[in-house]
Write the structure tokens for this entry.
Amino acid sequence: MVVAGVGGQGIMLASRIFTEALFRMGYDVKQAEVHGLSQRGGSVMTYVRWGEKVWSPITGNFGADYLVALEELEALRYLHLVKPNGVVLINRYRFVPMSVSSGLRGPDGKPYTYPDNVPDIVRRNVANAHVIDALSVAMELGNARVMNVVVVGAAARLFGLNRRAVEETVAERVPRRYRDINLEAFRRGWEAALP
């Protein structure tokens, strides 16, 4: 699994929840983190690999079964890592890069733009692409910062993970004072995912 987004979205927490939950499910699990410019809204991604025995967390091009993108453009950035028959979960959230917002121009002289049709592009390249608006769910709960846990809930269901193992991990990994809202975020994400 590849988990990707921009700095500040809680990619590391989401990845650690998946890793710990998969361990609870009885798998050998390895995780690798690539921080990038995480403190400046830059690209952040992690690998989570599980099985009977795992030697390395990192996979090559077209080697991942799953991609979880907490930001739309990051789904495109890491799409080359997913198998054509893989599953991609895209969060309907846009963080417009500085190259676009500043009007920077590419080598061809045209300004950089943010693609309008990210889910369509992804669907042309993988068998299963799903979209969730996790920010709207998080805002309904009163805290945008739980958006990542909404995505974790949806991904856990889409990928066939054990609900109890993931839910228990969420309860243990988030700060106690935010436990209830994060558990509700997980449940709402689980319910929002297609069975």
